[in-house]
Amino acid sequence: MPAFENFNVKTTIDCKQGAVRAVRYNVDGTYCLSCGSDKKIKLWNPVSGLLLKTYGGHADEVTDAAGSCDSSYIVSASLDKSIIYWDVSTGAPVRRLRSHAGGVRCVCFNEDSSIAISGGRDNAVMCWDIRTRRLDPVQVMKEARDCITTVATNENRIYAASLDGCVRTYDIRVGELTCDKVGEPITYLAQTSDEQCLVAGCQDSVVRLLDCETGGLLFEYRGHRGDDYHIECGILSNDAHIVTGSSDGDAFVYDLLEGKILQRIRISDNGGVVHSLATHPKRQEMLFARRRDMYVFSTDLQIEEEQL
Amino acid sequence: MDEEEHLHRFGTPLPALEKDVVPAKKPVAIEDQIVKDENGKRRFHGAFTGGFSAGFWNTVGSLEGWTPQTFKSSRADRATSRAQLKPEDFMDQEDLGEFGIAPQGIRTRDEFAKEDEQEQRSGQRRRKLMQPELGVGPIPGLPVLEQLLRPVRDKVAVRILKSMGWKPGQGVGPRQTRKEKRQATARNSKEQYLLEHYGAEGLPSHKETNEEDSNTEDEDDEDITFAPDDYEPIFHTPKENRFGMSYSGLNRDPILSKSSSSSAKPMQHINLFGEMEARANKKQLSIRGQAFGVGAFEEEDEDIYARDDMTRYDFSLADKKPKQKKLQHVQQRHVIDGFSEDKSAAVLQKPYTIDLPRDFQPRNWLQRRSRFAPMDKERAKKLETASEYKRSGLGRHDLNPDQRAQLLGEQKKEEKTAEEQPKRNPFKDRGKSLLERINARNEGFTKGGVITESGEEQPTEIAKEVKDANAAIQEKAALKTKDLPPAINSTGAFKPFLADEAKQLRYEKFVSSKLTDDKEVTEFLASMQPVSLSLWDREMEKKEFIQAAKIYRPLDGLMNDRFVSEANVEAEKVKEQEKPPEERKIVMERIKTMWKPTALLCKRYNIAEPFGGAMLEPENELKTKPKISVFDYLETSVNTKANFQTPSIIPKHIEKPKPKEVEPPPSPSPPPAPPPEVKIQDKATSKEEPSKLTFVPKTALEQAVDESRNKPISEKVDLFKSIFEDSDEEETVEEPPEKQAQEKLAALQEALGLPVTSTTSAGAQNVLRNTSPPRGIFASLFKPKKTDAAKEPAPPKFAPIEGNKLKIAYKSREERLRNDKELAMTEVAPEDIYGPKLPTALPQKPAAPEIQAEANIDARLKQLWQQHAPKKRKAEKWVERKSILSSEDSEASSSDESSSSDSSGGKGKRSKLSKPKKSHKSSSSKKSKKSKLNSKKKSKKSEKSKHKAKKKKSKH
């Protein structure tokens, strides 16, 4: 277990796209995406804070975005009930997929980015074959009883967290749906890198660590405030620290094993909900979204020098 | 023609209409109306067409432009017209025209010009009084003649005034300085105003001219004097009649008559016609008489119907003229020479004046000028007395500050005199909204007080009165409606059984008892219901009551399961919020279900499909939520799943005889299975009569049936087994004859070359007949006991017969037995038989032994078939055996001898009972059939049953 180092703010980016709804890293963490309430997605260099591209074409607020494994495409979800598959370099929408009956809340790619999985307010999880020109979903999973807040996938499973308090695991290999009922509305779901556990941010201001195999509750992390916000949580790349946003403008870093607060990151003194965050896939680095701004936090100071 | 020359024309004639030209309908628009001068030039142009044309074609000068005057030497003609230039020499032609600055035209001289023209020219305003009144004469407008003929010279008075230095437009009097004149004008205008509005009385007795304020004016122009302003006195015509003010009735004087009132008018100096007429009258020239009619200008006959009277004649010879002269002389004594006294002048009566008090203010008391005007004292007083009760009550808000002060013992202000009535503002309360008033006195509602318009609660006496009155009215109403059935009882519940009072009473009791348990309800009702009521009726009533109680429960109860009051919700919310965030133990639940990923998804994930894609396709959930309708709601509230109870009507008096029915030992056929029968009955009854009868199981079987009622069908197998095993045993007892028959039949078939297959069995026949798989209870029935079912003519047995449903259920056993007997005795009409039409031609054929044998086989097969075919017949018929057997035998034998196919229809009914015998017989007669069968097959009717045809085919 590596020793914990405090996170320090590295970059603050005013996204200038209204409220930032979500911040995401690309596959290797060299770029980041911000989804704005002005219906646009912006591609940034998180280190320098340079705006690389703006993707506009949604008809409503963008709620989530994900980059493909080769970082050549972006898929984004919006409240306009559509999913757009973007070409990163040209900035043109390659495909617009409409089948959700409600606003789309979350989207993700599978490992080889051939399938996009989206979940929406219509309680449906949809799998889209993004490689072909098929405009209707490959599969629709309508088991959830409430809005889907997060979809996640790995080699053989699809996870869908819903506000009905269940994490549904669709095991493609086994052909089995496992419904793990937590009982509290789940606002966000993150996978550990060893794919053994799930980190579920719940509505009752608790982040819960779930065991994938048994479906047991491993730990509860308390300390932050969720209120009625959809606060996101994450796990750092070393699988040792859990991070979550808070409605009082802070971010909390918990120790995975002990559950104690390692750091309470004061993001802003002016309040504002830290609702979205993203963890760097490799480094000890995080992105936070608060109001109109995006913050990059990191432990090591060397990167800066490296970049320079 | 001559006359034309003497006529004079005035004005310009309209242009003569040309015949061909249709006059333009559209008038020329204003913007198109262009004024042109004589040269055809546009007169007005530019500056919004207000500018004048100038110069040559709106340019300066002439055609050549403006050229300066060339020098012209005047040396040659020095003395001649040098200063002879007139202004006209420097004028344009246009200036001298009609619209120019110096128009050169013929016009009347000032003396003869009309007043307005004169005024225009002189710039002087004529006296208003001097202007003739319009519309006084018979012809409206200005008098034409007067306009045409004008006096050439001024009136004498005017001439005198003029000679004295007066000019028209000036006033008369000594000349004034500027200051004086200003003062005079101010005074005059003031007086004028007063006079106009208030008459002579309004004028102040002595004028206080404020000379001081104008002293500051410059006094240096004292020497310049001005003529005084023309003062226009107002003439008041005395009122001679008693008409209303300013009323003038129709002029009763004849038109243009001498006595025309116009002559009385001061300004009408000329009355040409009057004079003429008068002269004509004197000369007696006017044509009189009714025969000629009365012209517009003629005086009407005075009185054509008047009797000639002697008074009209003058008998005196005396000359009257000198007398008149004398009189004139006498009268002229008081007048100046040359003048005569005005005889027409009416004596001016002094108007009575009333001395009014100084502070009198004229006012219409009936009419309130404004809502905010103070009330007059009388009315205020009246109102005061009317609202006396208010003060006697709690009229706290009606007290004015003084009264309040008085009550509080404060120092009273001196100005406020005690005698002054405390004027209450009646609008004070009116300002309050009704709601406020109600809020202020909302206890009035609970008290039953009366809130008046003024927002006051009436004293209790009034309330009491009202209450009494109300009570009286209610009593009256109650008396009136006593006979009528009350729609709503005291509890406000609906009365669904008004038609039957006793029932209603029972219902009310039932409702008030609030029983929920079915048994209790039954008992409770049984205690009330009359003995005469049948069991079924009782059941019905109970059901009705329960239903009615559900439907007609009070609205709040009805709505309770749908709505929750907001207060409750809020309270719950608050409660929830107040609850400390309890550390709810999260209990993880894991549910695993099958889920089939689509092939493409697996492919994209690079995973083999689970189970090689052999997973069951998840059934498409097409659960469309039905729309909520009122009917659904009503239905569900009454017939919810929870409320639903499988109806089970197994009347005891039917159940009892059952074992007996089953028991008859010689019966070769299986006994009727009671549980299915019950089931069928259930179905029927549940559809038609929703009455519930309690079933008290008696036998073990019944108990089993009762227990298994709620079990799924798959679990009922045991039950059915137990039931059918029972019958199996019986069957085993009767097996020998059955087996014998079967063996015999098989033997026969062998002999005939027919394949000995199970097709002979009734079950197989059935299967052939009805290809659809057995459903419902039959599915489970047939599975465990195939052979049994094959033997059993199950379907016809269970087939519900519409007409007999109730009979089955409720007939007593004796009745049923009797009925069955009757039915057995009587031949069932062939129409009742279901199936293909039977050949009618066959019996006509000679009954050859081969044919007979053939027919026998046919009959046998038919029997077999009919045994299993659903038939329209009484279900109980075949139950009775012993009683029919004797007759059966005879019939069967006779049918054998005679036409087989003919009676087969009738026989078919009882075929089961006579089965062993039949088979026996057929086997005996089959020996001779063998040879002929082949030859006969062509002649066989095609409409024979399906089985038969099949058999034939198989034979080939």
Structure description:
The complex is a heterodimer of chains A (308) and B (956). By secondary structure, chain A is mainly β. Chain A has one domain (22-238): YVTN repeat-like/Quinoprotein amine dehydrogenase (Methylamine Dehydrogenase, Chain H). Helices cover 2% and strands 52% of the residues of chain A. Chain A is built from one helix and 28 strands. In chain A, the strands form seven sheets. A four-stranded antiparallel beta sheet of chain A has the order 1-28-27-26, with no helix packed on it. A four-stranded antiparallel beta sheet of chain A has the order 2-3-4-5, with no helix packed on it. In chain A, strand 26 and strand 27 (285-290) form a beta hairpin. The mean pLDDT of chain A is 89. Chain B has a two-stranded antiparallel sheet. Chain B has a two-stranded antiparallel ribbon with strand order 3-4. Chain B has 956 residues and is an all-alpha fold. Among the domains of chain B are: 94-131 and 143-169, no CATH class; 176-206 and 219-236, no CATH class; 709-955, no CATH class. Chain B contains 37 helices and five strands. Chain B is elongated, with a radius of gyration of 66 Å. Chains A and B meet through strand 17 of A and strand 5 and helix 19 of B. Chain A: WD repeats lie at residues 13-54, 55-96, 97-138.
